[in-house]
Each structure stands twice: as structure tokens, then as C-alpha cells.
Amino acid sequence: MILWLRILMVAAGLFGASGVAAAAVSAHLVGGASLATAATFLMIHAAALAGLCALALHIGRGRTALLVGASAIAVGTILFSGDLALRALMEIKLLWGTAPTGGSLMIAGWLVAAFGGARLARR
């Protein structure tokens, strides 16, 4: 369980750093709206992952659902923001449907996290 939390926290840190960098690049160099959107999603979900991990450390029932939801959010963010960033910066399109698949995974992850939140119980 602790390894899972560590991986998610590393992802949160990388998302935050990447989001700030992408926002700077879109504001000062290239990328425009697509890169700015990717940056926004990276930063929002960095904070969300950190919060879900912090909550998971202090609960018993509902922890697994929170971590599964956070994992889906992480994978979805990588797919969605990665696709937008590659299109904006390198004019490379990932596999067909990568951004919509990533968006769907983020939505599903939030719903699973909500389910875990509804089951919260202290250890």
C-alpha cells in the first residue's frame, strides 16, 4: 500500500512540475491553447493526487477505492495531457482517441474516488 502511495505522490510531483513548465512554454514560446489546457489539467490533477494520497494515509475503509480512483486519474491525465502537449509542441498525434480515452479515465477515476469517499471510515 505504501509503494502505491509513493508512486502516486511521485506522479503528483511530476504532474505539478510538468504543468508549470507547460504553462510557461505556452505563455512565452509555443503551444497556445492546447498546451495551456494540458498544463491546467496537469496542475489540477497533481493537487488532487496529493490530496487523495494524504487522505488515504488516514483512513481504513474506502482507502482502496481512493487509490484505484487516483490511479485512474493519473493514467487518464498522462494520456489526455500527453496527447495535447505532443500535438501542440511536436505536431505528433498519439493513437487515435488517446485524449478522449484519457478524459474518460479521469472521469471514471473521480467517480471511483467519490465512491471511496462515501465509504470513509477512520482506521
From TrEMBL:
Leader sequence segment: 1-23
Transmembrane segments: 33-57, 64-82, 102-121
Superkingdom assignment: Bacteria
Keywords: Membrane, Signal, Transmembrane, Transmembrane helix
Cited Pfam families: DUF423
Name of this protein: Uncharacterized membrane protein YgdD (TMEM256/DUF423 family)
Species for this entry: Aquabacter spiritensis
